[in-house]
Design goal:
By secondary structure, the chain is of the alpha+beta class. The protein contains eleven helices and 31 strands. The relative contact order is 0.16. It binds MU-OXO-diiron and calcium ion (3 copies). One calcium ion binds next to strand 29. The site of one calcium ion (CA) has 4 residues, from loops.
């Protein structure tokens, strides 16, 4: 944010001109087609050299990534492993009360308790520092505190001298928990999970989804939950509000007659300069079904993946709200698929669905401040062949807020087209576009069916866009986790099929608000195969202020590795494994204290809920149901996490 490097490209590891880098990418593509899949990736060419010299000479190279990596041989089994320079601890497993003294975890849970307990499926999260205990002033309560010319870390760092590094609020997403995990329900012969047998079970499942806000404190190196008036659960039945262009349309049904409720499949997240949390609704279609066999999806419903049995949660059998064939709940499906804003400092304020950001399967959002003080959000729509989006607020965010407007309610929504020559275009999704106007009647329709509008303007279908992150120099990184269905490669998605995934990087014009960008591939995960730092299926992602990229994985890893978190030095391409999870889990969610001495990540669906694989965080006994949990990571020497 601080620097205006509009002409820079993403990775200057070897200072080659952009064209040359791209040519290399293309020739690698040819190599891949020819079957030489072990060719080194363009950007990580130096990586194996660093790793070798470290081992050979016993000293640590002077770069950003200086820890002893977790070896492949150590990265499997029922228990996490971490670099010998680091340590980990467990916080807020699924089912813990959201305040100490609340209903204790009992397996299987009941719906009443679950509404006051930590949900399941820990995913995106953000730590909000508490800046002054005495005055009970929390976070960025005065939005003028935020300096648009500084990155998030420098803005957060102001609170270091106060209490923000040892006391804060953690907002955490609970993406999903399968019936087999929550209730221990078996799987029937056709592979489907057995469904709930009562409304009580449906409510329990619904209360396990959503978001938790908890207050946490560190003392003598140990983090724990504390009593809190801010702690709350927002789940599938919690009252919520709508805002932005779609809120006043009839596409959401009658909001007065049937007030909107809940958020679901909260995947990754973002946060705003004004101190609020953004939670993103991803696979919302999977919670709907149809009890009437004559129901058929509309064209719009089909584009969003609705069908008569969803992901087999079976909610529609006992809760008509999720029954697509129930005419009383027409448009309920349109009430999900949004970016949702939560004010962690005000527990009485409803979560607000910000419709100007469009309705897609939102993985997450990386918000930054662009030219003119406009907020800019980068968002992935995680589906094979879906798109990358960008939202730009209409005006300077501080001025908008001073006048009582949300910067997330007024602005333009764009979708990305990646040209094969390394340039890209942001295509605006607006009813003013005659092609779009042929299909839709209003901007509200364009936003509600953003995927279809994006199809019309010719966006580039990507290999499952997951997390987005903005580095301090303005580069934007996006994980493309994999795409087993790709048959036609293009420059931005060069592998077909793309079984290992890749990370793409782009540099936006006009300090994030322009309509053109330059892009290149940061890393093809297939290029790490055969090395000690192998990974596939990149998903969670965070660029830190020093130029590290923290990469988390979600997918079957090579060499029997569990899912993992690695750290890359963006400049040198050095790559190391910091952490591996437990059998059957996914590593996701990432946030830090302002001083970056404490990092929080999550193990999601450990053992896929199967106690035979892991009992984490309980000691291995083969019986105890594994629980999703937050992992607290610190460096043994008290240094910055990632270093
Ligand atoms: Fe919820 Fe695309 O991961
Ligand atoms: Ca994900
Ligand atoms: Ca994923
Ligand atoms: Ca997941």
């Amino acid at each position: 944010m601080a620097n205006d490097h509009d002409n820079e490209i993403c990775n200057k590891s070897d200072n080659r001109p952009f064209n040359q880098v791209l040519e290399t990418n293309i020739s690698r593509r040819k190599l891949l087609k020819g079957g030489l899949a072990t060719a080194a990736t363009t950007f990580l060419a130096g990586q194996s050299v660093n790793a070798t010299s470290y081992k050979k000479y016993g000293y640590k190279p002077k770069n950003l990534v200086n820890f002893e990596p977790v070896a492949i041989a150590d990265g499997s089994g029922p228990w996490p492993n971490i670099s010998s320079d680091y340590q980990w601890d467990v916080l807020i497993p699924w089912g813990e009360p959201i305040v100490p003294g609340g209903p204790a975890f009992n397996y299987p849970p009941n719906s009443r308790d679950q509404a006051k307990q930590i949900g399941i499926g820990h995913d995106g999260m953000h730590y909000f520092p508490i800046k002054s205990l005495r005055k009970r002033r929390y976070g960025w309560d005065n939005y003028n505190d935020w300096d648009d010319n500084k990155d998030w870390h420098h803005n957060m760092h102001k609170y270091r001298r106060r209490y923000g590094n040892s006391h804060g609020l953690l907002c955490i997403n609970h993406e999903f928990g399968r019936n087999s995990h929550i209730f221990g329900k078996g799987v029937s012969s056709n592979g489907d999970e057995n469904q709930p047998e009562s409304l009580e079970e449906v409510r329990t499942s619904q209360h396990a989804h959503g978001v938790s806000v908890v207050e946490i404190k560190e003392r003598y190196g140990k983090w724990r939950q504390v009593k809190s008036k801010y702690a709350r659960r927002i789940h599938v039945n919690t009252p919520v509000a709508f805002s932005g262009p779609v809120a006043k349309s009839d596409l959401l049904g009658d909001l007065k007659k049937r007030p909107p409720q809940g958020t679901v499949n909260n995947c990754a997240n973002g946060f705003t300069p004004w101190g609020t949390y953004l939670t993103c609704e991803e696979n919302f279609n999977g919670y709907f079904g149809a009890t009437n066999s004559s129901w058929t999806p509309t064209e719009e419903q089909e584009r969003y993946g609705f069908d008569d049995d969803g992901f087999n949660y079976g909610w529609e059998k006992f809760d008509p709200r999720f029954d697509l064939s129930n005419p009383d709940y027409k448009y309920e499906d349109n009430r999900f698929g949004w970016v949702v804003e939560i004010d962690p400092m005000n527990p009485y304020r409803k979560a607000v669905k910000r419709t100007a950001l469009g309705r897609v399967k939102h993985e997450g959002i990386a918000l930054t401040v662009g030219r003119g003080g406009r907020v800019v959000g980068y968002m992935g729509d995680d589906q094979r062949f879906d798109y990358i989006y960008k939202f730009v607020s209409a005006y300077n965010w501080k001025k908008m807020r001073r006048r009582g407007y949300s910067p997330l309610d007024y602005g333009k929504l764009y979708v990305a087209r990646f040209n094969d020559d390394g340039t890209g275009d942001w295509l605006e999704l607006t009813i003013k576009n005659p092609e779009i106007a042929k299909r839709f009647k209003s901007q509200a329709e364009v936003l509600t069916y953003a995927r279809i509008a994006a199809d019309i303007v010719g966006a580039t279908p990507m290999d499952r866009p997951e997390w987005t992150t903005v580095a301090p120099n303005g580069n934007v990184y996006v994980t493309l986790t994999n795409n087993s269905n790709r048959t036609e490669p293009n420059a931005a998605n060069p592998e077909a099929p793309n079984s290992d995934g890749h990370i793409i990087c782009f540099k936006d014009s006009y300090k994030h608000v322009g309509r053109k960008f330059k892009w290149e591939i940061f890393i093809l995960a297939s290029g790490t195969r055969g090395t000690e730092d192998v990974f596939t299926d990149p998903d969670g992602l965070m660029a830190d202020p020093d130029g590290r990229l923290l990469i988390q994985t979600d997918g079957g890893q090579p060499d029997s590795l569990n899912n993992q978190m690695l750290v890359a030095d963006i400049k040198t391409g050095d790559l190391r494994r910091l952490f591996t999870g437990v059998s059957g889990d996914e590593i996701t969610g990432i946030t830090m204290t302002p001083d970056r001495r404490t990092m929080f990540i999550n193990t999601q669906h450990p053992g896929n809920g199967d106690p035979a694989r892991t009992n984490f965080p309980a000691p291995t006994d083969g019986i105890t149901r594994p629980r999703d949990a937050t992992i607290v990571i610190t460096r043994k020497n008290g240094g910055i996490v990632g270093s």
